[in-house]
Amino acid sequence: MTPLLQASDLEVRFDTPKGILHALDGVSIEVARGETVGLVGESGSGKSTLAMTLMRAIDPDGGRILFDGQDITHLKPKALKPVRRRLQMIFQDPYASLDPRMTVRRIIAEPLKAHKTGSRAEIEARVAALIDAVGLPPDAAERLPAQFSGGQRQRIAIARAIALEPNLVIADEPVSALDVSIQAQIVNLLRDIQERLGIAYLVVAHDLALVHQIANRIVVMYLGRVVEEASADDLIDAPQHPYTVALLSAQPTTDQDGRSRLVLKGDPPSPIDRPPGCPFHPRCPIARARCAAETPPLTGVSDGRRVACFYPGELAVPWDQPVQEQRREIAQ
Amino acid sequence: MADTALLQIEDLKIGFPARDGGEVTIVDGVSLSVNHGEIVGLVGESGSGKSMLALASMGLVPRPGRITAGSIKLLGEDTVGLPDRRMQDLRGGTIGMVFQDPMTGLNPVRTIGSLLSESVRRHQRVSRDRALEIAEAALTSVGIPAAHERLSVYPHQLSGGLRQRAMIALALVNDPAVIIADEPTTALDTTIQAQILDLLRAKLVAAGGILITHDLGVAAEICDRLAVIYHGRLVETGPTADLLAAPRHPYTEGLLRAIPRFDRSRPRLVPIPGQPPAPSMDRGACSFRPRCDYAMDACAKAPALTPDGADRSVACWAPIGAPVLERRA
């Protein structure tokens, strides 16, 4: 079966006063029907650019995007409209993504009207059902976004995103602006909706534990490239790329299991001034001469696992080291 | 260990004028102390009053808010109601602060060197050149490479991680007795957060510190003791490991159950139902009651923070694990 979404070799470059910003450098990603793919990376990794490019909000400078087998890379807005119906997005900031002057009813009805899904009465009934499905009270329909908390606003955004029963929802940091006690409500809601409607998700987030909680597969990006891709469990149990190891070990946790952390030195390089060779080599604890000279390609290492490293699996997560105080700083 | 606490907040209340002419209480009777060599984590969600508590410790409660009761003793001196001049001497000298966003914590039109050296000269009688030397040493001590060259750059010319280091250097430059860090890593990437947490741990234990955060994981990484704040009141305090292993307050337990962990079985997250309360919500009953699984009749009256075994306190009529006949209403 063809994947629902298949993007290959995407290139995105921005012209900036300081030079060319290479936001995506040959990124390929697939999402199957009904699955959840997590996309993790830090600022400058290109994860949000990738999400916007897949939504066709940014035109790629190279590569191809297939949606359900159809090439949508260069579709004009009119031809794109039926695709939009099946491909929706949820944003990080529920305060910025909803029109403050529109009632919740109008916000949720908007996509239904734009795609002429039924009579007025049918749309009305559908809006009421959606409000209920995302756990908002029935009287929410007549209120304005400002009258809701952040978590409730994200519910409104989710209702709008699923109104047309899309095949794929791209969610960019959907819970990171919310309070901890509310995050779990939204994560559970997204999971329930997926079970009911079979929607596939591409969830962009910086929180690896959160992504592991909801994703079947995780794709790790660094400086505009995919550096590792694996099933969520494999990625957590045995990360192959040194950057994934670092990310995993840097995750703050309440499990005081006495592990030590691997703390990377330095900042991620600027995407404008990319290092030669492997983009991670200046911060990599196991980098060698070859890593500065050649860029490792993303290569399959086993079933469904891909990693862009000449020495995959060599660096282990320092899980079992005895004392927390023994944190190591690994030199460059 | 010093005998007296470096910072001792006692029964502090902070209020803001309400629209109806009354006053909304943002912080309601909080007591918290920090000893030498100790990092206390203050954990709460948005609107819990945690940042207001930090500002109050610095003498920076924004108008028209005001401290309505209680005391804040810094090295034994009550700072509530101190003249601005005296408070300015303490701020940046005896007490240092690290903010979430270094772009707001660092004046953007001043070089790093002038920001740091000015702070040095305000609190120490040294020459301009000596102040710059102290500034450079502070930058080096927080792991900023090429510190000498960095003295002449502006905050925006540094990366996010280096900016946060520069702000920590500014907080530390006069060797304060107490450092307050308000969400110091929230705006940072995970790998940079790990660097800054290591740095903060090293620097805060050298004095005494309060780390204010919404993230229990971050607090767990570097704090010795935790205080959980909800609706302007402390609901639970205790040594970090004990409190996380066996939370006594239902809110603390709720927070821990709501956080995803690396677990292959992916147990469904258990959200805390409802919303965090608005500061104006009535304080007669336990503030957590509307969201609490264990609420019972007694909760119509707000419980006080009460000692609960060694080193721990909890504000709950029926703390989790306590021998109570009937927990559920």
What would your notes on this structure say?
The complex is a heterodimer of chains A (332) and B (329). Chain A has two domains: 5-215, 3-Layer(aba) Sandwich (Rossmann fold), CATH 3.40.50.300; 240-329, no CATH class. Helices cover 30% and strands 23% of the residues of chain A. Chain A has helices at residues 47-54, 77-86, 104-114, 120-133, 150-162, 180-197, 208-214, 232-237, 242-250, 289-293, and strands spanning 5-16, 19-31, 36-40, 62-67, 70-71, 87-90, 168-172, 200-205, 217-222, 225-231, 262-263, 299-302, 305-307, 328-329. In chain A, strands 6-7-8-3-9-10-13-12 form an eight-stranded mixed sheet, sandwiched between helices. In chain A, strands 2-1-4-5 form a four-stranded antiparallel sheet, with helices on one face. Chain A has a two-stranded parallel ribbon with strand order 11-14. In chain A, helix 5 (150-162) packs parallel to helix 6 (180-197). The termini of chain A are far apart. The relative contact order of chain A is 0.14. The model of chain A is unreliable at 321-332 (pLDDT under 50). Chain B is an alpha/beta fold and 329 residues long. In chain B, 31% of the residues lie in helices and 21% in strands. Chain B has helices at 50-57, 84-90, 102-105, 112-123, 128-141, 147-150, 160-172, 190-206, 216-222, 240-245, 250-258, and strands at residues 7-17, 23-34, 39-43, 66-74, 77-78, 95-98, 178-182, 209-213, 225-230, 233-239, 306-307, 313-314. In chain B, helix 8 links the parallel strand 7 and strand 8. The radius of gyration of chain B is 21 Å and the shape is globular. Mean pLDDT of chain B is 91; it is low at 325-329. The A-B interface holds A 42-43, 149, 151-152, 179-185, 187-188, 191, 206-210, 212-213, 233, 236-237, 246-247, 249-256, 261, 263-265, 267-268, 327, 329 and B 45-46, 159-162, 189-195, 197-198, 214-218, 220-221, 240-241, 244-245, 254-262, 264, 266, 268-273, 275-276, 291.
